[in-house]
Amino acid sequence: MLLTVSVGNTNIHLGVFAGFGDHAALVRDWRIHTDPNLTADELALTLRGLLGDDIERVTAVAALSTVPSLLREIRAMLPRYFGDGPHVMLEPGVRTGIPLLVDNPKEVGTDRVANALAAHANFPDRPCIVVAFGTATVIDAVTAKGEFLGGAIAPGVNLGVQALSDHTVTVRRVELLPPRGVLGKNTVEALQSGILYGFAGQVDGLVERIRSGVPGFGGDDVAVVATGYQAPLMYDECRTLTDHLPHLTLDGLRRVHERAKATRAR
Question: What is the pTM assigned to this prediction?
């Protein structure tokens, strides 16, 4: 089995795949809170607790981290607890088959690269717009040929809620649920409306700008894919989203691993 590990600023998303290629299937997945101070041993202990006896069946690991301190710890953990692999760390310079048509490819987050790879594989020969709802809301464009064109990065939903709560005296954090209507009849509903519909409007506005301003993205075949831990909250509120793939990053890591394995076999 293949263990995939995607470390983000807020959550660590873990998944176990069985099979290979078209026959690969995600068996289980988990999300845990990101602690940037975790050591390699603590991370391995957490994985063992989640996987149980299945940890003995893990033959390879594919991982990425947008948190530099945990990237170092994952590198130390892999040979210590999972043997020689073959393991793959998705970092700048790793071949994914996705050309990064940006000023500095090394600046592109590896989670964005994994998402682009998986989106193109899931929607071949179609342009894709990937909307990742995480700590930040990241909207990226991938051509029908699988070229990464760049994207837009905005604060995520939780950051907006936190900023509003931290910088106003009378506003408190609220449960993020759709209110009865766009015009809140009390403070809680007004906050829910502003947060949910405001962020949805931001996403729809950016997607529409991409579709109207970027060649090749104006047709009816464009896939607008939502992913990330906040996607279930926002999917129904955004008018431009066409698909929800909650495990897109893990799928991308699986494909990076399979590509690396095939390259070694040549």
Answer: 0.93
